[in-house]
Amino acid sequence: MAVIDLSKDPLIIDMRESIDRFDISFLHLLSERMRIVKKIMFIKFLRQIDLSQSDARKEDMQELIEMSVRLSLEKKFFKRILDLVFQDAIEQFNEKEVEENRDSLEKICAPYSLDNLRNSLLNLDKSLCFILAERFCVVKEIGIYKDQLNVPPLDPKRWQDVLDNKVEIAKKINLSKSLVKNIFNSIHEVSLDIERRIEESKA
Fold first, then answer.
1. Hey, what's the torsion of the CAs at 180, 182, 188, 189, to 10 degrees?
2. pLDDT of residue 1
3. What are the C-alpha distances in Å from 49 to residues 40, 89, 102, 105?
4. In terms of CATH architecture, what is 7-202?
5. Sign of dihedral through CA atoms 196, 8, 5, 183?
6. For the whole model, what pTM was predicted?
């Protein structure tokens, strides 16, 4: 049986372009989110407030997870994304670097309050959630089309190329390579699960 080359299929090309655009938007929003988190952590550090999540932020997290479920994302999935991002922020925080740049950081953070920054964070997280939901809608369409063509869900080479591309973009916008790899591997697991469920429903 002839192997179908999806890289030349106009419908697949169009849907993959949509996914690439969602991913670029996701990464840029994530980069801005990390900038806001750095401001929050610096202000907390200056005021000697524990860097762990506040009760207000935990309430926001619950709201985000509930919203992700309404958008048909799995509860554990979006929580994992938020946990990965928070863990990366803690790991990236460097007290020595903060002390060395104290004057400039104080100027940068002067216009902001923790409440305002937290609200910005919540809005960005909602945007990330919407982008992921839209991305998975396209993944589902790809899965249905692949199923019609009897093409298996997993293409290891294609996925490695995609992942390498995301890491390259991440470098340019100051995102941690490990964070981006972990997030996109989680996204890929969900995408494969969507495609497998389509295959199983036919069986």
1. -170
2. 42
3. 10, 16, 16, 17
4. Up-down Bundle (1.20)
5. negative
6. 0.93
